[in-house]
Amino acid sequence: MLDILDSLNKVEKKSKEIISFSCVAFTQTQECRLLIENAFRFEGIPLPSFVTNKDADIQSYVREANVEIALVELNQSQNVTEDMRRISHLLPNSASVIVIGQEDAISTIRNLKEMGFYYLFWPVSKEELIEFVKNVRNNRQREQGLGKKRVAKNISVWGCKGGVGTSVIATEIVFGLADKHHAKCLLVDHDYYASNLDILLKLDGFEKKPATISGIGNDLDETYALSMTRKVNDLLSLLSVGSDVHQTHELKEYTRSLEELLAEQHNFIVEDMSKSCQTNIDYQYLTEKIDTAVLVFTPIVSSVRQLKKVLELLDKQSKNTRKIIVLNHIQPTKAEPLSNKEIEVVLERKIDVEIPFEPSMLKHVLDGGSLFNSRLPIARPILQLISMILGESIKPRKTGIAAWFSRKR
Predict the structure, then answer these.
(1) Is 90 exceeded by the pLDDT of residue 358?
(2) How does DSSP classify residue 217?
C-alpha cells in the first residue's frame, strides 16, 4: 500500500514540474493578451512580459532583455508576411518567434517559415496556445526548429568599376539601417591593404585588426570573432583585418569564417565589395551566399558592360538572389556619355535607384554628417535603396498637381 502511495506522489510531483523560460508577448489587442495570460496561468508557467506591438517598443525591449521565445500578435495586420519582414530585424536572431495572425493561407505559413518564424492561426484556445509554446520550447532544448535557422541577411554592395562610390553607399546603408530601422549591422571591409571606411565611419585612431591565421587553431569562436570587430555604435560594428604576411585569398577565407561566427549576432552583414577588392572567390560567394546584391555602376560603357556580365552571372547561377541596380552619378550628367534610356536598353531591365551627382557630398561626409538624413537631394534615393533592401514597398513620388494637393492637406 505504501509503495502505491509513493508511486502516486512521484507522478504528482512530476506533473507539477515548473516550466520556466524567458518569454515576451508583443500584442495588439486586449483579447489576445488575456488569452496568453490565461493560458500561461492555466499551465502554471510564469507569465511572459507584455509589450505593445510597436516598432519602437519592440526595439527598446529586446535591447535590454534576453528573449528565448517571442509571441508577436498580428491580428490587426493587413499583410502578415510584409509586416514580419518589416519588423524581423528588430527581433533577436537567437529567439524563437511565434506569429499569431488571422490569415488562413498556406502561403503565409510558407513565407514565415522561410524567414524562420512559427505561425499560429487565430482564434486559438488556451490549450492549443500553450501546447504550441511548449513544443517550440522543446525544439529549442533539442537545438531544432525554426529559431535556430535565423542568421543575418548578407548584403553585397558590389562595384561594377573602380571609383563608382561603393564604399560611400555601403556605409550609408549600414548607418541608415542602424539609425532609422534599429537593425544591428556588421560592415565588412574587403580591402586588406588600404580602405577609407574608417574615415566614412568617423572612427578616430583606427587600425585594422591583425589577422593571425596560423595561430588561431581551435580558438576561432564567437568571442574571438567579436574581438576582431571595431564598434562604431550600439548597433553598428566594422570587421576590418589586415596582414603583411598572409595573401589575399587567405584573408578572404579568414574573413568569411569570422562572418559565419558573427551571423547570429547581427541582422545584416553588409560587404563593401569595391572593384579593386574583388577576386574569383568573391564571384563564387556572390552566387552562393548573398541574399541581396546591390550592384553599383556609373553611366560609362565599361561600367555598364561589367554590370551586364554580373547580372547574367546571377541570373544563371543564383536566381533567388535579389538584385538592386544602383546608378550613381559621380560627375555632372552633361559630362556622362550614356543616357538612362541607352543603359536600360543594354541591360534589358530598369534601373532601380538613381543617385544624383552631388558636388558637396564628400565635404558633408568629411564634416561628420551622414547623407541619408541630410537635406541634400542625394538623401531620398539612399533611403529608397535602404527600403528596397528591407523589402518595403516604394510609393511613387507625387509630382505636379498631386504633390501640390498633398502639401495643402
Answers:
(1) yes
(2) G
According to the 3-state scheme, what is the secondary structure of 11-44?
Answer: HHHHHCCCCCCCEEEEECCHHHHHHHHHHHHHHC
pLDDT at residue 330 is higher than 60 = yes
pTM of the model: 0.80
CB 366 within 8 A of CB 199: yes
Distance CA 172, CA 197 (A): 11
Domains of the chain, with CATH numbers? 20-149 (3.40.50.2300), 153-395 (3.40.50.300)
Structure confidence by residue, pLDDT tens digits, 30-53? 999 999 999 999 888 999 999 999
Return the beta strands (E) in 74-220 as ranges.
96-101, 118-121, 153-159, 185-189, 209-210
Strand 153-159 and strand 292-297: the pairing is parallel
Terminal Cα distance for the chain, rounded: 83
Residue 359 backbone dihedrals phi, psi, to 5 degrees: -65, -25
For the four alpha carbons of 111, 117, 118 and 123, in that order, the dihedral sign comes to negative
**If residue 233 lies in a helix (H) or strand (E), which one and from where to where?**
strand 229-233
The C-alpha cell that represents 349 in the structure block: 531591365
Stretch (H or E) spanning 4: helix 2-15
